[in-house]
Amino acid sequence: MSSTKSPITTTRKDGQGLLLGRFEIGKLLGHGSFAKVYLARNLKSNEQVAIKVIDKEKILKTGLISHIKREISILRRVRHPNIVQLYEVMATKTKIYFVMEYVKGGELFNKVAKGRLKEDVARKYFQQLISAVGFCHSRGVFHRDLKPENILLDESGDLKVSDFGLSAISEQIKGDGLFHTFCGTPAYVAPEVLGRKGYEASKVDIWSCGVILFVLMAGYLPFHDQNIMVMYKKIYRGEFRCPRWFSPELARLCKRVLDTTPETRITIPEIMENKWFKKGFRRVRFYFEGDKLCSLQDGDDRVNVEDDGIDYSSDQSSYSESESEMDSRRGLTLPRPASLNAFDLISFSRGFSLSGLFEDGVEESRFVSRAPVSNIISKLEELAQVVKFSVRKKDCRVSLEGSREGVKGPLTIAVEIFELTPILRVVEVKKKAGDKGEYDEFLEQELRPRLRELMHSDQSGECESSHLPSDTE
């Protein structure tokens, strides 16, 4: 996150605003009570982005700062081809800025407002929606306000889920295992939410997906009435009728998704096995190079990639093998690690570090090593093989990703190597995703013991490690 005391924008000769010297601000795209969204251009990459500008004073007065932090945490947790991507967060004394992917095609609502869609088009959108929602659920994230207005279309006609402002995470679940907050849009809200007795957020999202599917195929809402209380009664009773042009397979799927009993409502894995859904469906396989999304086709021999529906990983800095690493396998030299300066060292202090300001449960540890970069990476690869973690690498950064699903998704750990002096390196270890307790256990039982031999020791034999203490500590 960046912060500055200087004015946040300057004015260029052509009248355009310049945000923090990095983004050229364009037209206003939309606004709400606490934020405005602008089209902008990244001066370095020349790419268009959307920048959400949030008024700090307003959210502090209304007690919504924790809400904003949670939204940031959620967006960093759910990087997927069918979800609008958060690139970075910046802040000044008065504003918070979300730099986000700009989706040019507008809302799905605008497309549906012109009339019902062809079956193949509606099926494609529903497949992408279920892929995105299933990915969120595997990360312990629940949208709770799915509707065509919160679904965007890019210039290629692919779907992007947006607006996670009402989203919840699994950590918020009460003692009874249910959510109790009444939220959502009336026409898309599930009957159990109306009952106000607690609900499973994943089941609520599935219901909303069912309403969206019906709207795409029918051109109108399954539950509708000018009197909102009458509409709620229809929803609560599940009173709807499929139009005659629905195929028998589609009608059966709609009835299963719009089942008023949450316990018997179809699940996302069951939807993905449904005959109507599976027609032409291909799982999304992807990885991220920094902020760039890279998709893979079937038969690609690249390994350790994200696969929608299988081995989800929420590593927010997912890296694939680079040319430099392939060169190193051929006996060439690995790239030199980034050098640390005085400001970097100060930021490593617990008192000065700002890295966790907008993060949700980020843990980080560091130690000094004399070992060559190649040895450190080899040791991490050996560790990954023993504990059956997948490995993603780029230059001097390594991501270790577990395959076991937990409440917060698989445990994902990022390791980056920096140069302190020509013979000393700092190894930084961060938990990027997963449960804190599982991370602490992994750190104590696997990571620390196996990396201890890499730690540089002084003449007294004590490890020079700031956050990876010795067993006697």
Automatic annotation (TrEMBL):
<keyword id="KW-0808">Transferase</keyword>
<dbReference type="Pfam" id="PF00069">
    <property type="entry name" value="Pkinase"/>
</dbReference>
<keyword id="KW-0464">Manganese</keyword>
<dbReference type="InterPro" id="IPR004041">
    <property type="entry name" value="NAF_dom"/>
</dbReference>
<keyword id="KW-0547">Nucleotide-binding</keyword>
<feature type="transmembrane region" description="Helical">
    <location>
        <begin position="204"/>
        <end position="223"/>
    </location>
</feature>
<keyword id="KW-0723">Serine/threonine-protein kinase</keyword>
<dbReference type="GO" id="GO:0005524">
    <property type="term" value="F:ATP binding"/>
</dbReference>
<keyword id="KW-0067">ATP-binding</keyword>
<dbReference type="InterPro" id="IPR000719">
    <property type="entry name" value="Prot_kinase_dom"/>
</dbReference>
<feature type="compositionally biased region" description="Polar residues">
    <location>
        <begin position="457"/>
        <end position="473"/>
    </location>
</feature>
<keyword id="KW-0597">Phosphoprotein</keyword>
<dbReference type="InterPro" id="IPR011009">
    <property type="entry name" value="Kinase-like_dom_sf"/>
</dbReference>
<dbReference type="GO" id="GO:0007165">
    <property type="term" value="P:signal transduction"/>
</dbReference>
<keyword id="KW-0418">Kinase</keyword>
<keyword id="KW-0472">Membrane</keyword>
<feature type="domain" description="NAF">
    <location>
        <begin position="335"/>
        <end position="359"/>
    </location>
</feature>
<feature type="binding site">
    <location>
        <position position="52"/>
    </location>
    <ligand>
        <name>ATP</name>
    </ligand>
</feature>
<keyword id="KW-0812">Transmembrane</keyword>
<dbReference type="InterPro" id="IPR017441">
    <property type="entry name" value="Protein_kinase_ATP_BS"/>
</dbReference>
<feature type="domain" description="Protein kinase">
    <location>
        <begin position="23"/>
        <end position="277"/>
    </location>
</feature>
<keyword id="KW-1133">Transmembrane helix</keyword>
<dbReference type="InterPro" id="IPR018451">
    <property type="entry name" value="NAF/FISL_domain"/>
</dbReference>
<dbReference type="InterPro" id="IPR008271">
    <property type="entry name" value="Ser/Thr_kinase_AS"/>
</dbReference>
<comment type="function">
    <text>CIPK serine-threonine protein kinases interact with CBL proteins. Binding of a CBL protein to the regulatory NAF domain of CIPK protein lead to the activation of the kinase in a calcium-dependent manner.</text>
</comment>
<dbReference type="GO" id="GO:0004674">
    <property type="term" value="F:protein serine/threonine kinase activity"/>
</dbReference>
<dbReference type="Pfam" id="PF03822">
    <property type="entry name" value="NAF"/>
</dbReference>
<feature type="compositionally biased region" description="Low complexity">
    <location>
        <begin position="311"/>
        <end position="321"/>
    </location>
</feature>
<feature type="region of interest" description="Disordered">
    <location>
        <begin position="307"/>
        <end position="331"/>
    </location>
</feature>
<protein>
    <recommendedName>
        <fullName>non-specific serine/threonine protein kinase</fullName>
        <ecNumber>2.7.11.1</ecNumber>
    </recommendedName>
</protein>
<feature type="region of interest" description="Disordered">
    <location>
        <begin position="454"/>
        <end position="473"/>
    </location>
</feature>
<comment type="similarity">
    <text>Belongs to the protein kinase superfamily. CAMK Ser/Thr protein kinase family. SNF1 subfamily.</text>
</comment>
